[in-house]
Amino acid sequence: MKKILFLITTVIFFAVSCSSGDDNETGASTDTFNRQALLENIADNIAIPAYQNLANDIEVLKTAASTFVAIPNESNLQSIRTAWLNSYISWQSVSVFEIGKAEELSFRNFMNVFPVSASEIEANITSGTYDLNAVSKDNEQGFGALDYLLNGLSDSNTEIIAFYVSNTNADAYKKYLTDVVDRMNDLTTQVLTDWTSGYRDTFVSSNGSSATSSLDKLVNDYVFHYEKHLRAGKIGIPAGVFSGSVLEDRVEAFYKGDVSKTLFNANLTAMQDLFNGKHFGKNTSGESFKTYLDFLNTIKEGEDLSTLINNQFESARSTGTGLSDDFSAQVRTNNSLMTQTYDELQKNVVLLKVDMVQAMSVRITFIDADGD
Fold first, then answer.
1. Cys bridge to 209: 29, 31, 192, 360, which one at CB 3.0-4.6 A?
2. DSSP states along 336-348
3. How many Å apart are CA 322 and CA 324, to the nearest integer?
């Protein structure tokens, strides 16, 4: 009888152990952290206000474009350039949210693929026939296309203005500029409207711990954006980390030249603010990835994981302080500082992609394609 009881107990023990292992493999979290409060803070105090700010700036850009097209002179050229840069900086706070309508529309690709194809943009202008809704046209529009149209047609403001005044295709240049801005405005409006007319509630209510829950998807988007668009896109690729040689034309705002660092810093700050749950445009904070890790009492090497992550953000920012405003010039003259900045950013990939996601029981679902 004792042997029988022992065997039954053993079977039950292994059954429970196997069941527990299967649950862990699903990545489901069993902690009691209030995920809904985190999602509410991100939706109401970060994502929606950031999108509203971008939408306002795009409206200013649209007005400036209309004014420039009507009267192409140097004053109006400077005004549209200012509106473009302000919008581009605002974009850095929303680019991480490739979720909901933004994911459906491929918002990030249509707004900020770089480098753009100048030859294809010129072909579109010459032919007058193009469909900016087509996926194949993502490198012929957005902020990069405006950079080319406002800064890249010539080194001279007078000659740039001439493209919109005396060039044989002047009307076509005006139309393409207008179409690009209208497309950006339409996409931004669609995404913001979706957030404010129903998606916000969907996002917040999906507060479980499955792979399709809002937090799991957001964490994946966050890590993907940090790794692919901030670390690699803004720094690693132009520095030649993956190609073995510098690629000076692979920077944001290539034609403007002196705002690469501004855009990098804006995105770095936005990513750290999101990690800390900092309200957009304010000094207050709410529930966040940081508070979640603190709730879990996640310790690495004797220190809070959230502290290590924030310290690494600051280390990357500090290293990047010495970078030139123009990253194209930077990779030509002192690429080692670019690669050092990349290395500091890379250190946080490990903390975010391995330590943070494991603590939260989130499974990485995107495909890592750059071999790092």
1. 29
2. HHHHHHHHHHHHH
3. 7
